[in-house]
Design brief:
By secondary structure, the chain is of the alpha/beta class. It is 32% helix and 25% strand. The protein contains nine helices and ten strands. Strands 1, 2, 3, 4, 5, 6, 7, 8, 9 and 10 form a ten-stranded mixed β-sheet that branches. Helix 2 crosses helix 5. The longest helix has 21 residues, at 41-61. It is globular. 41% of the residues are buried.
Length: 260
C-alpha cells in the first residue's frame, strides 16, 4: 500500500478517557412495550450524562485545554439515539390513535450529545457530529486536519453508542451471542492538540491505495500494527501504546490514520 500524499504534520493525543455501562435496565423497559414508553427518554439522559463525564475526564487527563471557548468538538456515532424510531415503530403497530410524545424529540438528534457536553464544559468552538459506519475514522481525520491547517489548536474527538434493540438487530457490533444480552453502552473521548505537546503524534495519510486486504506494506515492514477502522476505533486510539496504522473501511483509494 502506497500513499500519493502524506500530511507531514498532525496532532498529538494529549488525553483520553473511555467508559462502558450496562444497558440491561433500558432494554428491559423496551421489552415492556407500551408500558415502557414513558421511560424511553431515560436512556438518552443516562447516555448524555456519561458522555459528558467521559469528555470531562479526557480534558482533565490532558491537563486542561487552553482557550476553551475556541476548542472545537467533533463526535461520531453509528446509530445515534435510535429509540425514537423504535417507539414510533411500536406505536404504529398498535391499534387506535397514533401519537408520539414530543419530549422524545428533545433527545433524538445525534448532535444533542455534543451540544449538552459543550454547554456543560464551556467548549465554544465549532462542533460537528458524524453518523454512520465510517464516522469514527472521519471524525478523527477531520480533527487532525483542522489542527494541521491551523484552524484549531485543540479539538475534542468523541464517540458514543447505546444501542436499543431496534438498532442492535442489524448492527454488526450488536448484541453478541450471550442469550440475547444487550451490548454495552460506551463512550470515548480524545483531546488532540497541535504539535509540540505531550503524547503520541497522530497524522493523516491521504489517498492510500489498497491492496485488497487492508495491509500497509511499508508499515508491516517496519513492524507497525495495521488495523482496518471499525466500531471502537477511538477506544483503540485511546489505548494504543505502540505505533499504529488504521486504514479506512471505505473501498478503493482511502485515508489512513498513523499513530506514532
Amino acid at each position: 500500500m502506497t500513499a500519493t500524499r502524506s500530511d507531514t504534520t498532525g496532532a498529538r493525543r494529549a488525553g483520553a478517557a473511555t467508559t462502558e455501562f450496562d444497558l440491561t435496565a433500558h432494554w428491559r423497559e423496551r421489552a415492556r412495550g407500551r408500558e415502557g414508553w414513558d421511560n424511553a427518554p431515560a436512556l438518552v439522559r443516562d447516555l448524555s450524562t456519561r458522555f459528558t463525564a467521559t469528555v470531562a475526564e479526557a480534558i482533565e487527563r490532558a491537563g486542561g485545554v487552553p482557550g476553551r471557548t475556541e476548542t472545537e468538538f467533533v463526535a461520531a456515532t453509528w446509530y445515534g439515539t435510535s429509540h425514537v424510531a423504535e417507539v414510533m415503530h411500536e406505536q404504529l403497530r398498535e391499534a387506535g390513535p397514533k401519537w408520539l410524545d414530543p419530549e422524545q424529540f428533545l433527545h433524538y438528534s445525534p448532535h444533542a450529545m455534543v451540544s449538552a457536553a459543550a454547554l456543560d464544559l464551556g467548549l465554544g468552538g465549532a462542533s460537528t457530529t458524524l453518523v454512520g459506519p465510517d464516522s469514527e475514522f472521519q471524525a478523527v481525520a477531520h480533527a487532525v486536519r483542522r489542527i494541521r491547517s491551523g484552524r484549531a489548536a485543540t479539538v475534542v474527538v468523541a464517540e458514543y453508542e447505546a444501542l436499543t434493540p431496534f438498532a442492535a438487530a442489524p448492527c454488526p457490533d450488536g448484541p453478541g451471542t450471550a442469550a440475547g444480552a444487550p451490548p454495552k453502552g460506551r463512550a470515548t473521548a480524545l483531546v488532540l492538540t497541535a504539535g509540540g505537546g505531550r503524547g503520541p503524534s497522530l497524522t493523516v495519510r491521504r489517498s492510500v491505495a489498497g491492496d485488497g486486504d487492508g495491509a500497509d506494506a511499508p508499515a508491516e515492514r517496519g513492524g507497525t500494527t495495521v488495523r482496518t477502522a471499525g466500531p471502537g476505533l477511538l477506544r483503540l486510539l485511546a489505548d494504543a501504546a505502540e505505533p499504529l496504522v488504521v486504514v479506512s473501511r471505505v473501498a478503493g483509494p482511502r485515508d489512513a490514520l498513523v499513530l506514532g
